[in-house]
Amino acid sequence: MSSKAAPFLEALASRRSVYALKPELPAGIATKDVQNIVQQIIKDTPTCFNSQGNRAVILTGESHKKVWDHVYNKIPLENFKKRPLSCRDEAFGTVVFMVDNVKTKELQDMFPAWSSAFPDFVAHSSGAAQISTWSALELVGLGGHLQHFSDFVSEALPQGAIEEGWKVHAQLVFGLPTAAPAEKTYIENDVKVFE
Ligand SMILES: Cc1cc2nc3c(=O)[nH]c(=O)nc-3n(C[C@H](O)[C@H](O)[C@H](O)COP(=O)(O)O)c2cc1C
What class does CATH assign to 18-177? Predict the structure, then answer.
């Protein structure tokens, strides 16, 4: 396809769940670069009524290990402990995506007719930020996967990482890829045009 959208579509297509990681960054990439990417994406991701309730923090080093160790210890079933253990020991860091529900409540008070829709709207916007970040990090040579151990993660976040009324939505765990992701299959799913 020759269009200005091609590089964007290629970036979307090359984003994958990469679980085989080691706790390093690619050559020439620093934590500051990851921070700049996340910061920019949080700023540029649209939100309902421009409410700008997306929040994120990046965990590396001890704070990353502490969170995933906590998740590992909290999970009751042996079978499900493997993932937090690999997050703790094989990934470099975690982007924790949150939503400021003080803002969600303000929206609900301002626009009561949409009150029940706002939790979905803010989750959509958080999801958009999550997937943009996932794609952008893979463009700079990182691998990542998305996790949802939000309640356990909340309990172990460092002091000052989360404010009153914020809710953790997802965790993007990242590091240096050590193997290609598994083959992916796609269904036939045509988008029809009606005129
Ligand atoms: C909204 C959403 C939630 C997901 N939750 C998880 C999760 O909790 N744990 C996990 O390992 N992968 C999770 N994934 C990853 C999907 O399983 C994965 O994106 C899908 O199988 C397609 O594979 P790909 O990411 O390699 O394209 C999630 C993906 C999305 C979009």
Answer: alpha beta
